[in-house]
Write a structure and sequence with these properties.
The protein is of the alpha/beta class. About 45% of the residues lie in helices and about 15% in strands. It binds NADPH dihydro-nicotinamide-adenine-dinucleotide phosphate (NDP) and 2-hydroxyethylsulfonic acid.
Length: about 260
């Protein structure tokens, strides 16, 4: 797509699932990429594949979005070539556990809030000033249906995604006098490593989340991101909710 060729796109959580598919989709459209996550080995493999296949440039950042000092340092130290980030995709995130609040693990809550909320804020705070200065850019947050509705035992994860929804709206208000665009893409059930992480490696339990439905694929989310990113500059996709056809709401799923 001509709008995306040569753009600099920063994708957090690019080592797996949506982030990896989003990076691939931007690469396919000729964008240059900054890919970030904690698992450097995976980023190296992805980077080599994308460079070779799409002849684009890729910068790898080994980054834990919970570590604010490292984030600000990494963004500040970007070379001139990489400094002008056109599109930031705040995708890094996770769920831990599925428990009633009175039995929930405080450690799990902190990990979700530190990653999904504070991590997204830190990365945005580091990147957005450059966009404001240049009067151009696009922030694309990966929210969730869990940012619109709460499902049983989803308490803190849902709260973290409600926060992403509020932050997205807040940024859009704060940059309304600029040409910057702010989008949230909010999927329902999509089969990635998300549930494996939620259930700490219990693959069978993770699989059962998607039993009897055709869940969304990471590529479906990447398609939506590319749609939003490639609209003309006067057009902002403010919010998109993406559900598999047999999911009617966060908690209502018809399984065959
Ligand atoms: P995956 O588990 O497949 O991918 C999660 C990504 O986030 C990984 O690349 C992981 O990288 C990265 N990540 C997690 N914690 C950190 C951290 N502290 N610092 C940097 N990167 C981190 O899950 P998905 O692709 O499904 O999830 C992506 C986003 O989509 C999340 O925000 C999730 O909440 C959201 N979402 C998922 C849905 C689903 O059903 N799958 C539906 C709606 C929203 P690494 O571990 O290498 O750091
Ligand atoms: C992930 C979607 O409904 O599995 O955000 O929590 S859900």
């Amino acid at each position: 797509m001509k709008h995306l060729r040569g753009k600099t796109v920063f994708v957090t959580g690019a080592s797996s699932g949506f982030g990896k598919a989003i990076a691939e989709a931007f690469a396919k459209n000729g964008a240059n990429l900054i890919i970030a996550a904690r698992r450097l080995d995976r980023l190296k493999i992805l980077s080599a594949e994308l460079r070779k296949k799409f002849k684009i440039e890729v910068l790898i950042l080994a980054l834990d979005v919970r570590k604010k000092t490292e984030i600000f340092k990494a963004v500040k130290n970007l070379s001139a070539k990489w400094q002008n980030i056109d599109i930031l995709v705040n995708n890094a995130g996770l769920s831990r556990g599925l428990d009633p609040l009175h039995e929930g693990s405080i450690k799990d809550w902190e990990e979700m809030l530190d990653t999904n909320v504070k991590g997204l804020l830190y990365v945005t705070r580091a990147v957005l000033p450059g966009m404001v200065k240049r009067n151009s850019g696009h922030i694309i947050n990966i929210g969730s249906i869990a940012g619109h509705e709460v499902y049983p035992k989803g308490n803190v994860y849902c709260a973290s995604k409600h926060a992403v929804d509020a932050i997205t709206k807040g940024i859009r208000l704060d940059v309304v006098n600029t040409d910057i665009r702010v989008t949230t893409i909010d999927p329902g059930l999509a089969e990635t490593e998300f549930s494996i992480v939620r259930f700490r490696g219990n693959v069978n339990k993770a699989k059962s989340v998607y039993n009897g439905i055709e869940a969304l694929k990471a590529e479906d989310i990447a398609d939506a991101v590319i749609y939003a990113a490639s609209r003309p500059l006067n057009f902002v996709v403010a919010e998109m909710i993406l559900l598999p056809n047999k999911q009617a709401s966060a908690g209502v799923v018809h399984r065959n």
